[in-house]
Each structure stands twice: as C-alpha cells, then as structure tokens.
Amino acid sequence: VFNQPRATFQFLLANQVTQQDPVAVGIMVRAFLKSMQQRFYAAEIAGLGYGLSSDEYGLVLAVSGYAQRGGALLLDLARAFAKWEPDARTFEMAKEAQIKSYKNWKMNRPDSHASYFQKLLIEPEKISVPNKLKQAESIQLADIVQIK
Question: Buried b vs exposed e over 15-40: b needs ≥16 C-beta within 10 Å?
C-alpha cells in the first residue's frame, strides 16, 4: 500500500519434538503468542506482524511488515522466545483454547473433514482429533516446560 517497502521473514527452527508431541507443542505455541500480545502490541499498531507456528519439521518464526523494522522485530521475537518461561495462567488459557478447538472440529466444513480423513488413511502415524483431545486434556505445565 502506498509503495511502502514490505518484507516477510520466515525462519524454521528445525526440531523433531513437533512430530513427537504435536499437541503439547501446539499448546506451547498458543501460550507463547498469548504471553507476547502486550509486549509486541506497539509493533502491531506500527504495521508489523509476527507469529510462531509448528509443522512437521519444527517451529516457524514469522515476521512481516515494513522492511526496515522487520529484522529488529524478528530479533526481539527470537530473544523473547529463547528467554520465555510459561506461567500457569497463560498455560491454562492456551490449553483451554486448544481443547475448545479440538471439540469444535466437528463444525468444520465437510471438505476439510474429507481431506482430514484422507490424510489419516495415507499417513497412519498422524494423530486423530479425538486422540489429540485426550492428549490435550492430560497435558500439564511441566510437559510444556520440558519441551521448551
């Protein structure tokens, strides 16, 4: 917009734990992002965006926005993640959000259900949503601290 230089940075933090315990990693990602909302609020107002997500290869740290500020935000975000220690309140909020997400899975569109079941048939090592829900209900803060 208005010929502003924009950039997107995505860095993969390769780690096998995302394959071994994707439910706990998902809760950890939610907890981290929730705990960083206030810290990076000014960056969002300034037109920068940030995120942390997980995939089968590891964690993806992403920053987007104005090119001259993106690198500084990425560095701040990486430092914040390295020093971050999950607290009980944020963990519980993230866990409840993850559980709610699994419970609401039934409300997804039929084509996403078809795609999901196709992946389960093709990749038997994938964890089903009902099993993810059971795992999420049993995860404790200590599990997240151990992953981190």
Answer: eebbeebbbbbbbbbbbbbbbbeeeb
3-state secondary structure of 142: helix
pTM above 0.90, yes or no: no
- With beta carbons less than 8 A apart as the criterion, state whether 139 and 81 touch: no
For the chain, domain boundaries = 6-147
DSSP line for the chain:
-TT--EEEEEEEEE-THHHH-HHHHHHHHHHHHHHHTTTTHHHHHTT-EEEEEEETTEEEEEEEEEHHHHHHHHHHHHHHHHH----HHHHHHHHHHHHHHHHGGGGS-HHHHHHHHHHHHH-TTSPPHHHHHHHHHH--HHHHHHH-
pLDDT, tens only, 1-16: 567 778 898 999 999 8
Superfamily of domain 6-147: Metalloenzyme, LuxS/M16 peptidase-like (3.30.830.10)
